[in-house]
Structure formats: structure tokens, C-alpha cells
Amino acid sequence: MADNNDGDIVVDHPFVDNPSKSYFPPLFASWNEKICPILETIDKLRSLNVIKEGIHLPTIVVAGDNDSGKSSVIESLIGITLPCAPKICTRVPLIIKLQNHANSVPEFLLEYQKKSVRIMKEMLISKAINKATVEVAGEGKRITNVPLTLVVKKKGIPDLTIIDLPGICSDWMYADRDDILKQISSGITTEYIKPKDIIILNVASAGGGLSNWKSLSMSQSLDKTEERTLAVITKCDLIWGSDYFKTAVANIFSIRHPYIFVINRINDETYNHEARIREAKIFDGLRFSSKSEKSTVGIPALANRILQIQLLTISKCLPEVVKNINERLNDLNLELNRLPNNSLSIPDAMAAFMHILGSLKETLQKILIGGEYNEYADDRQIHCDDRLVEMLDEFSKKLHSSVKFSESFLVEEIQVIEETNNGILLSHLPPHSLLLRRKVNNIYNLPLGFVKEVWGYLEIVCDRVLIDHYGNYPQLLSSMRKATHNVMEKMKFEFLERVVEMMEMEKATDYTSDPDFIASWHKLMDNRDEFMKAVCNYQEEINMEAHGTINVKHLFSVQDNTRDQAFELKMRMTAYWKIVLKRLVDWIVLGLRFMIKKMVIREIEMEIVNEVMVHGGGIEKISEELSPERVNLQTTVGLVQKSKEFLEQVMDDIFISVD
């Protein structure tokens, strides 16, 4: 916003100067900054048993006359496209439940009449709503009070409910006008705007005139304090001008409601960039006599006004919350003062330390070895067996993807044969051994990467267990985490060395006692005659059982003897390579289980004792810290005190804003 030379105020808009700026729906833009920290603090106080109930944000109900653009207002606020059509579009109440979602992939559900329809893409939401509306209310203009519930789960959005109501019909061209008016006026609209814990957005079209605003009259009769009703005038671009603006403002002032002028999107215009740019440019053409007038135009201004109402609602609950905090702080401090100030004796501290060590060992044994997750039943990240199986399956898939049977068929084998015959490279090695070395080198990094991934995951699990169980002992936790990290690094390096040795052994010796090798090799060689026949007849493709279609056109010019050797080498290596991969996976699984068991049962315990007793200053230094009751109380007092200070500051900010 800026002042021009005449003293008038013009509108600044971020999208006008930078159309490519990333878009976040206006209703959510200030959410993380203004409201989310308050709700997180309230949830923290609930977990500390300071308060019993949280704070619920008011539902936003969008009411208005028929064809006023209610749905367009909602989609501009939350960034989701809703059905739009001339005259009557919304024929049933649409309850939009926004829910924060940890997953980066959004989910959409449409629920009605005990049905639940999953919507696969956001662009299909409008189509799904139209289809459900016809199913519930029938074709035509019929309106019914059977709601549709659209559940939107997205990462980073607030937990909020918005309701889009059917518009009040004011068009005399409909023969069933009286029936529609009766259904809406006496039923649906009144039912949804009557509760005192909701915000009412009353929407009217600028082109329809403001003197006969039916839904606003209904709001006035139900919202006597006029604190929860906000008037929204849409489609201002259709008749916009300075004369209309003055007249509209005068009419709004006469009904004493807060008001916002907005411009809806048209046709296929995007509500995020194109509609907002057009809105900003139109409002830029106006001359506002004050900053308060400037704050009454645009979707961002509407979102900001809604946020103010939400904050005001929250502020009414906060004095009682602060009262509960003060009472809890007094109780905690009295309890803390009753505790003896002396620290634990050395024998008691030693006993407590060994108990902690034993408890850690038992917990890790359950999670990493026994597959018991009672304490973390709902946290799949800690379910070690399941996660390791997933990582192992992925590792196995990557290994087997190295077997590309039909890609450049026999090219690598021919190259190896020619190099061996011509003495270009490692002529003392037979072709099979040389080819095996190359194939092992090609996958060398896969098992090493897998080991690093697994140990990185195990370190996360161990760190989580340490924090959850021993977070109240900061000094001891620091030593235990350092010791655990040292053990993990040591075991990872030891395992990597063994994997490297395994890979080198595979390169050095091509041996197997697996009887499946001979059977598999002979089965593959059964394709030899068909292959030779296809090449001799210049047949470009051959279909080989279990391996699909193979292109052989590039082999037409290869000498028969070389081609025959390459085919035999390929079949032999294919059969043997399956043995190698199977052996590699099996060995890594066995080695992994052995190393985890060794780490949990012996290594971690020894390293923690060494770290605490030798490098951590001994048991004397942490004897006071091992008084868990005092530590727990001090931690709780600190958390509650910080929450109190934060909420008091929030209350001051809200009251200043309201004033």
C-alpha cells in the first residue's frame, strides 16, 4: 500500500509485481504464523494435564442469495475448485472439512448418505460433487437438506470446517420459486447460521443490489451482537465505479456490519494468479480516502478479517486457560519445594544408572531383535522388522534389475571374448571369469549403499529410544547418545569391510554347489538351436521363454564361432548370476542380524559405561541428575511457564489489534 501525490491510498498486491510468486491460499497464509502456535501450545498444555479440553475454531458458514458467487469466494479462500454454474448451482449443503495431513500426497473423500467416495485427483472434486448432488437432490433445481461432506487432507493446511449453503432464490423467473424460498429460508440457512460458535459470511452480488439482501436480514435476526457476521460483496468488476463504491459503502454502513468487496474468477481463469491479478488491478484504479477503506477490498483482506474473528474467538478462551496454568504452576512449585535438595548417594546413583542401562538394553532387544513394538504400536517408523524387510526387498529389486537379458543381447559377451582372444586385457583369465568381474563391479556400490542405509535407520531408532526414555537426564543423555553413535559407526565400518570381502570373493572365484545352477543353465541352452536358426534366416527378433522378445539384428555380421561362444557364455553367466545375487542377499541378511545382535547385547552397553565413567566425569558428576522426580518436575514447570508467557503475549496482541 502506498500514498500517491494527491494523498489518496492505492492498493499494493504481490501478484501484480511478481505473477510467478508461489501461491498459498489466502485463508491459510497467516495460519502458521498466527494461529498454529496457539493451538500447538494448547495441545502441549493438555498433554501436561494443565487443561482438559482444547480450543476449537469456529466453523465458517457461507450463506447468501442465489447466484451471488458463494462457491467462488470459498475456492478463492482455500484454493480448491468447486462447481460453478449460472443461477442455482449449490443445491445441497456442502461441508468442507480441511485436515492437516503429514503425508505430502493429499487425499480427498466425498461422503454422503453413508457412502464414501475417494477422489483420486484434486481436479476431479468438482465433477464428483456434481454427480453426488444429482444423486441426492435429483436433476433440475430441486434443493434438499441432505449434506455432502468433502474431506480434504493436505500437508500444511489448518483443521477447519467451511460450509457452502444453497443460495436463497430471489429470481422471479422460476415457477417453483415459493417452494425453493420455503426450503432455504425456513430450513437450511437458519439451521446452519443459528449456532453461536460459527462465523457467517453473507455473500451478495454487486449487480443484484444490496437493499434486498435476504440472507443478511436472517443473520441480523440471529446474530444480535453482530460480532460473527461478515458481509461480502462479489462480482464488483461487473458494475464497478466510484459512484457505485460510495453508494455500496453507504448501504453497508447503514446495516452496521463489517464488509469486504471482492472479485470472483470468471470462466477458466485460475483463482490463484489470474483472478487475483485482475482483482488487484481493478481495485488499484480506485482512490481510497483512508486506510480503513483500502482494507475492505480483495480476497486477501477477506481472509485477514476472518483471521481476526478467529483470533477474537480464541482470545475469549485464553483467560480461563491462563487461570488454570497459574493454579497448576502453584501446585508444581509446592511439590518441588517439598523434595529434598540433596543429590543421590553414589551407590544409589550407580544402581539407578545400571537400571537405566538395563532398561535401554531390554528396549532395544525388543525392537531390534525380538520385533516387539508395544510401546510404539502406532509408530510404524519404529517397527524395525517391517522397515528392514522393505529396505531388503528394495535392495533385492535393484540387484536383480542389473540382469538385463534382452538389452544389447550378447554385445558384452562378444566384447569379452574378443579381448581375451586378442590379449587386449587380462588374457590369462577365461572369458567367464572376466565377465563375472565386470558384473560384480557394476553392482559393487549397491550392497555398500544398502548397509549405509540400514545403519542410518538403526541409528535413528536408537536415538529415538534414548530421547523418549532418558530425555529428562540431559547430561546422561548426551553421553549415551555419543556412545551409541560411536558404536553404530564402529559396527557399520566393520560390516562394510565384511561386505567388501564378500564382493572380492565373488570376483575371485566362480563356484557354486547349488544343483539349480546346472538345471537352469541347461534350460537356457535349450534355446540355442532356435537362436541360431533365427540369425541364419536373418530374423530380427526371437522370443525366448521367460525372457521375452530379444532383438538379434545386430548379430547378423558376427562370426558364427564367436556368436556361438557368446551365446554359451551368456547362458552360463545368466544361470550363475542368479546364484550370486541370491547368495549375496542371503549373506547380507545373516550378517546384518548377527551384527545387530552383537551391537545390542554387548557393544552398546560396554561403550556407554566407558563413555559415562571415563569421559563423562564419572558417576559422581551425574548423581544429582539421576534424581528423576526433581528433573521431571523442573521440566514440567519450565514448559508450563513458557506456555503461560506465550499465551499472555498472544492475548495482549489480540486486544491491541481489536482496539
From TrEMBL:
GO CC annotation, single: membrane
Keyword Transcription tagged: no
The chain positions of domain Dynamin-type G read 54-319
Select a single GO molecular function from the record's annotations and give it.
GTPase activity
Pfam families hit by this protein: Dynamin_M, Dynamin_N
GED domain segment(s)? 566-655
Q: Which UniProt keywords apply?
A: GTP-binding, Motor protein, Nucleotide-binding
| Stored InterPro entries | Dynamin, Dynamin_GTPase, Dynamin_N, Dynamin_stalk, G_DYNAMIN_dom, GED_dom, P-loop_NTPase
- PANTHER family reported in the protein's UniProt record: DYNAMIN, DYNAMIN CENTRAL DOMAIN, GTPASE EFFECTOR DOMAIN-CONTAINING PROTEIN-RELATED
Q: What is this protein called?
A: Dynamin-type G domain-containing protein
Say which species the protein is native to: Lactuca virosa
